[in-house]
């Protein structure tokens, strides 16, 4: 092939790929409008374009036909039964999803328990009427008091009809951290008044906390979420049997 023909071939290749890319925009835009986050283009079967991404913090791969008639959300395997989707998610999507999960937790309504300088942060979904939440609070004292761990108590009202009003009472206090500390020091025997008329903003925040708890698959408290030494997000439902494995 001479130099002139080579230049023509390269030019045609770019035009075809640009045309294919332009075709992809309608389905891609449609999926984006539904909340799908496209992270990286990946290998795909013939006549399709593949993407790795996520929706509602659930990672997946999407394959869009170049004729704009079909798209597939699901796993892709090669002839050797290797799951190429898993590789793409691990390589391109996992970090983005973990960041979004952590950001969602940071934006929730929580009570700080521990120093700002703590090297480990643990989010804990708690209900004022949960005895196991009090157990975990007491178990964690040596690590919190030493400055190594900061707990962020995400208040929910799921155990009793009055739980939401009691959670609102804590969160609306001038010093929620102190009120929650005193409540736990009394082993939940301290009388905690139920707020009957919760301000709309606070009521919405508590509802959002509960939705977040459900979103991450928890149905009971305490529910814990933290990052391990590798930066991966870990979770546990219930007070841990061996807290050293979690906090050290």
TrEMBL record:
One of its GO terms (cellular component) is periplasmic space. SUPFAM superfamilies: DsbC/DsbG N-terminal domain-like, Thioredoxin-like. It holds the Pfam family DsbC_N. Transmembrane segments: none annotated. Coiled coil: none annotated. Its main location: periplasm. CDD domains: DsbA_DsbC_DsbG. InterPro entries: DiS-bond_Isoase_DsbC/G, DiS-bond_isomerase_DsbC/G_N, DiS-bond_isomerase_DsbC/G_N_sf, Thiol:disulfide_interchange, Thioredoxin-like_fold, Thioredoxin-like_sf. It is found in: Periplasm. Residues 19-86 form the Disulphide bond isomerase DsbC/G N-terminal domain. Keywords: Disulfide bond, Periplasm, Redox-active center, Signal. Residues 117-236 form the Thioredoxin-like fold domain. PANTHER family: THIOL:DISULFIDE INTERCHANGE PROTEIN DSBC-RELATED, THIOL:DISULFIDE INTERCHANGE PROTEIN DSBG. This is Thiol:disulfide interchange protein. It comes from Acinetobacter stercoris. The gene is dsbG.
């Amino acid at each position: 092939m001479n130099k002139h023909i080579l230049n023509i071939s390269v030019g045609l290749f770019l035009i075809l790929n640009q045309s294919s890319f332009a075709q992809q925009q309608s389905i891609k835009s449609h999926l984006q409008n539904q909340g799908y986050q496209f992270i990286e283009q990946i290998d795909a079967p013939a006549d399709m374009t593949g993407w790795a991404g996520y929706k509602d913090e659930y990672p997946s791969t999407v394959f869009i036909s170049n004729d704009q008639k079909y798209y597939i959300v699901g796993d892709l395997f090669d002839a050797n039964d290797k799951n190429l989707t898993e590789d793409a998610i691990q390589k391109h999507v996992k970090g983005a999803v973990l960041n979004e999960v952590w950001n969602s937790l940071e934006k929730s309504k929580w009570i700080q328990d521990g120093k700002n300088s703590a090297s480990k942060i643990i989010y804990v979904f708690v209900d004022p009427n949960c005895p196991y939440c009090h157990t975990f609070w007491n178990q964690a004292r040596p690590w919190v008091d030493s400055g190594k761990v900061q707990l962020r108590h995400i208040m929910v009202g799921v155990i009793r009809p009055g739980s939401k009003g009691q959670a609102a009472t804590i969160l609306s206090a001038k010093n929620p951290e102190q009120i929650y500390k005193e409540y736990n020091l009394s082993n939940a025997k301290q009388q905690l008044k139920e707020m009957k008329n919760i301000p709309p903003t606070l009521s919405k925040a508590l509802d959002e906390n509960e939705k977040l708890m459900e979103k991450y698959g928890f149905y009971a408290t305490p529910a814990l979420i933290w990052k391990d030494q590798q930066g991966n997000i870990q979770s546990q439902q219930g007070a841990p049997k061996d807290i050293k494995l979690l906090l050290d």
